[in-house]
Amino acid sequence: MQNRNLTADDHFKELAEAVVEMDEERAVAAAHASLESGIDAYDAIQQGLSAGMERAGQLFEEEEYFIPELLMCSDAMYAGLEVLKPHLKKTAGSRGTVVIGVIEGDTHDIGKNMVRIMFETGGFNVIDLGRDVPPQRFVDTAIDSNADIIALSTLMTTTMDGMGTVVRLLNEADIRQGIKVMVGGGPISPGFAKRIGADGYAVNAAEAVKVARELVAI
Amino acid sequence: MSIQFPVQTDVMSPLARLAAYSRGESIDRLPCVPIIGNTAARVIGVKVSQFRGNGHVIAEAQTASYRKFGYDVIRVFTDLYTLAEAMGAVVRYPEDETAYLAAPALDSIDDIARLQPVEPHKNGNLPCHLEAMKRVIEAVGQEVPVTGALTCPFTTASFLIGAENLVRLVIKNPEAVHRLCEVALESAIRYATAIIETGCTPSLTDPMSSSTVIGPRQFLEFSYPYLKRLIDFIHSHDKKVTLHICGKTEKIWQAMADAGADCISIDNDARLRGAVESVGDRLRIMGNVHPSEIMLQGTTADVRQAVFDCVAQAGASPRGYIIASGCSLPTETPFSNIQAMMDAACEIGWPISPDLLSRGQI
């Protein structure tokens, strides 16, 4: 690739395409190329890698891509990110901090990982507590990190109640106003979200980011 | 006063009802199957963990649950992991909740060669489940079909290597996926053989094959061939096969029929009416009252309404329809809601009123 002949937009396009095409090596090469051309690392992440991941999210919603493709896209995105991150001059104006995890008793975390990726792509600072997380830990972490959002996931009907417990603990700690709770996962419905007093529900990872943006925009 | 105990008003036994229904003869009501797994523990007042290693407790619970509600198929099922556990996956058993996968059997695809197909009478909790099936057959096998849950190869493969690893391999290393599915299939066939020897019919479940996880083309490449071989094997023993795949399935209904399923069990992410129109002339359809939204959290009126909606959509399906929950019921599903499902089936009765069926056409 002849770097000097490429415009910034060409670089962004190449980065985005590498992500959409699930090509880790191409993403790494494109990241190096954009740095060599003097492209700002922050712009390369936002307008290149993130744009690609957003496109991948769209393809997922359109059922062109499924979980395997989305995971491979995110692998490419992270590979490019590794190259660009050390060159960040300005820290991104984060949209907010999200504490995310799979509720205690459930070890299915593909869905949660997808949501985490989309949050990171969407400019959120994400604290991932992993899977099988006790309700109290969500609350403690959210307080310690001054988080804006707690995002809870479960695939199991057996563990849904843990989500309500998190909301209750937040209420008891009297910090409910500052922290929004959003929920998702197989057995979760908008009705359930409402019933336990959650602020938001998303049906999939792509929608989760939109919901989160709305929640912190208030 | 309305009928409270349909079990007592049922004229036919489940076996007689299903046989007559399949022959196109008159029946007393549609078959109805609230899919009960660990909820059975609540019927006899034991903790879910007491099922582990105790086939006689599972059998006692499943038999008691059937006798209490009078549904049309018993399915011996506690969790999805029994087969993978018998191949080395680590399963955790909370005291009173459904077991869950703590760690896959393998750390790396380099270890695939180490995997051994199961010995059903020796490995993990398989012997206990087989004992449960045998005992349920002895107790009530003369009146009701008894099935044993069997996790299908692609899903078992995900428990062997980890779900996230498996879906990456689908793109990165198809050959590794096929090797995992091949050994999972051999295990499934051996376990199916043992299930059939108890007198039960294997009941197939394959959540990872859902279009919520993998695309229809990936299903055809990585899941379908193994499903087909498994179903062919079960058919060679003159058993009918019910196949349950969770989540979105619309784009693979035809393939599920091609694989040889005699009945497919549809989840709530799929539209029952759509399934009837797509494959209703090829196989029987069961589903899809929402297990959590309706059965766990709804009122008895919600359950009744949901059953009526389902029958309106699918009651006239050419190859037959079974009223059922969309998936296994959550452990704490209220008995009143399970009863309400049975009551609704009785209330609808037979023949199904043309008024109700015409509502499903819209």
Short characterization:
Chain A has 218 residues and is an alpha/beta fold. Chain A is 54% helix and 10% strand.
Description:
The complex is a heterodimer of chains A (218) and B (362). Chain A folds into two domains: 3-87, Methyltransferase, Methionine Synthase (B12-binding Domains), Chain A, domain 1 (Orthogonal Bundle), CATH 1.10.1240; 97-217, 3-Layer(aba) Sandwich (Rossmann fold), CATH 3.40.50. Chain A contains nine helices and five strands, in the order ααααβαβαβαβαβα. Chain A has helices at 8-20, 24-36, 41-61, 67-84, 110-121, 135-144, 161-172, 190-195, 205-217, and strands at residues 97-102, 125-128, 149-153, 180-184, 200-201. In chain A, strands 2-1-3-4-5 form a five-stranded parallel β-sheet, with helices on both faces. The longest helix of chain A is centred in the N-terminal third of the chain and has 21 residues, at 41-61. Chain A starts with 7 loop residues before the first helix and ends with a helix. The model of chain A has no long low-confidence stretch (mean pLDDT 88). Chain B is an alpha/beta fold and 362 residues long. Chain B has one domain (30-359): Alpha-Beta Barrel (TIM Barrel), CATH 3.20.20. Chain B contains 16 helices and ten strands. Chain B has an eight-stranded parallel β-sheet with strand order 1-10-9-8-7-6-5-2. In chain B, helix 12 links the parallel strand 8 and strand 9. In chain B, helix 7 (153-161) packs across helix 8 and helix 7 crosses helix 9. Chain B is globular. Chain B starts with 5 loop residues before the first helix and ends with a helix. The chains are: A alpha/beta (218), B alpha/beta (362). At the A-B interface, helix 4 and helix 8 of A face strand 4, helix 8 and helix 13 of B.
